[in-house]
């Protein structure tokens, strides 16, 4: 794994390199995705089933696109009991964490006759996209559905690509049932996103679409934004570890590779104050790559976007982390909590050598749907707030408005909006 002594120029190059991974840069796919979205918008089910046949090799129709209760029961019987127990524990942890995020409506009444407030309302319907095919991602199912259920969303619709046999992966389907999905449809790709956004005869539209997917799914979500809300445009996975000379090199190397194995665009970066640790981690990485099953993918990820950055001080390490704004940030230093207080930009922060990134992916409770590609500078992890909306409440008595009406009229007239001013004035003629 390459070791770089960090300076201003190398930092600029690394940031530029990272930005190449941004899904917004994949213009070559945009036209294709837009065509699929428009086709599903115009032809509904007919287009949806054609694309499912073409891309997933599955023959679906209005009669079998929705998962039945019998299919759910069949799926649950196929899940190994030990895994089922782990999934239930994970779900309990996720629910307990997200219940702390609940917001309440509030009202503030003043003696002058004004009442201001905020009404919090759960979204009526949400679509959850879950990658499918041969792979199963039950953790993503739980992370997307549980916060929506905690927020009070009544209709939670999951879409996921079917296998060629027209069935959904049993582990994915079981997770959806446990978490509280109200409907599950066998549809994936840009066509499923379009169906959720505009509705078809078989899949009624939703108000918001969340969940990760490939570049086609990401661009489809971008294309339908405005017709519905979305969570974010997810980019490739990334991890950054801040470590000092006391860190365990084997632990650090293993944690870096936990994200590098996702795909060739994943990023794994160590920022350390110790050249000795840098060299040890590099050797450990090489050893792990030879042993791990996804070694070829890991190596390409490291060659493309893997770095060990050596800095002079922890302050410089923190500055580097805040500039990159990683999806996952691990702090493995002598005083990790002190370092944590200086972190401004990160999706999730893991503190100490026993808080490795997969703990957050599967079990601890905080959401693993996180901002990527530097968007942690202005985005947050998926949570209950993503499944609610807020309405302002305004009440003025006549007496309260009488004290303010001339000021409001003057303000409106300064903007040449005389009808605004008149709406207030007529009440005191």
Automatic annotation (TrEMBL):
One of its GO terms (cellular component) is cytosol. Pathway: Amino-acid biosynthesis; L-histidine biosynthesis; L-histidine from 5-phospho-alpha-D-ribose 1-diphosphate: step 9/9. Its cofactor is Zn(2+). It catalyses: L-histidinol + 2 NAD(+) + H2O = L-histidine + 2 NADH + 3 H(+). Binds 1 zinc ion per subunit. PROSITE patterns: HISOL_DEHYDROGENASE (PS00611). GO terms for molecular function: histidinol dehydrogenase activity; NAD binding; zinc ion binding. It comes from the Bacteria. Keywords: Amino-acid biosynthesis, Histidine biosynthesis, Metal-binding, NAD, Oxidoreductase, Zinc. Its EC number is 1.1.1.23. Substrate binds at residues 237, 259, 262, 328, 361, 415, 420. PANTHER family: HISTIDINE BIOSYNTHESIS TRIFUNCTIONAL PROTEIN, HISTIDINOL DEHYDROGENASE HDH. Catalyzes the sequential NAD-dependent oxidations of L-histidinol to L-histidinaldehyde and then to L-histidine. Belongs to the histidinol dehydrogenase family. This is Histidinol dehydrogenase. It comes from Enterocloster lavalensis. The lineage of its organism: Bacteria, Bacillati, Bacillota, Clostridia, Lachnospirales.
């Amino acid at each position: 794994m390459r070791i770089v002594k960090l300076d201003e120029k190398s930092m600029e190059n690394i940031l530029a390199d990272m930005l190449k991974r941004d899904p917004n840069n994949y213009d070559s796919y945009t036209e294709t995705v837009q065509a699929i979205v428009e086709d599903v918008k115009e032809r509904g089910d007919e287009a949806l089933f054609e694309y499912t046949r073409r891309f997933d090799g599955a023959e679906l129709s209005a009669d079998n696109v929705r998962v039945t209760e019998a299919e759910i029961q069949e799926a649950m019987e196929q899940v190994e009991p030990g895994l089922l127990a782990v999934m239930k524990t994970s779900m309990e942890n996720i629910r307990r964490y997200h219940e702390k995020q609940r917001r309440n409506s509030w009202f503030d009444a003043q003696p002058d006759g004004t009442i201001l407030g905020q009404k919090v309302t759960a979204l009526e319907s949400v679509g959850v996209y879950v990658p499918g095919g041969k792979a199963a991602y039950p953790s993503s199912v739980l992370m997307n559905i549980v916060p929506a259920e905690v927020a009070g969303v009544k209709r939670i619709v999951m879409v996921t690509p079917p296998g060629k046999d027209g069935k959904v992966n049993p582990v994915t389907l079981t997770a959806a049932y446990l978490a509280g999905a109200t409907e599950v449809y066998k549809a994936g790709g840009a066509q499923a996103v379009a169906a959720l956004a505009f509705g078809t005869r078989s899949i009624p539209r939703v108000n918001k679409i969340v969940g990760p997917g490939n570049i086609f799914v990401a661009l489809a979500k971008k294309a339908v934004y405005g017709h519905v809300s979305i969570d974010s445009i997810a980019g490739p996975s990334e991890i950054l570890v801040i470590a000092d000379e006391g860190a365990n090199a084997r632990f650090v190397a293993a944690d870096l590779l936990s994200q590098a194995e996702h795909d060739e665009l994943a990023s794994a970066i160590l920022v350390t104050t110790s050249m000795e640790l840098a060299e040890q981690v590099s050797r450990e990485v090489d050893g792990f790559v030879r042993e791990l099953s996804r070694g070829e993918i890991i190596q390409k990820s490291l060659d493309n976007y893997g770095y060990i950055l050596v800095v002079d001080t922890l302050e410089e390490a923190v500055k580097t982390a805040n500039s990159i704004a990683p999806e996952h940030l691990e702090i493995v230093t002598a005083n990790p909590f002190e370092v944590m207080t200086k972190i401004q930009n990160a999706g999730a922060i893991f503190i100490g050598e026993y808080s490795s990134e997969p703990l957050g992916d599967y079990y601890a409770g905080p959401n693993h749907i996180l901002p990527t590609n530097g968007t942690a500078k202005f985005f947050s992890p998926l949570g209950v707030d993503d499944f609610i909306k807020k309405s302002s409440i305004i009440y003025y008595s006549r007496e309260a408005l009488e004290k303010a009406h001339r000021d409001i009229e003057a303000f409106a007239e300064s903007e040449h909006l005389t009808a605004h001013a008149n709406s207030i004035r007529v009440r005191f003629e």
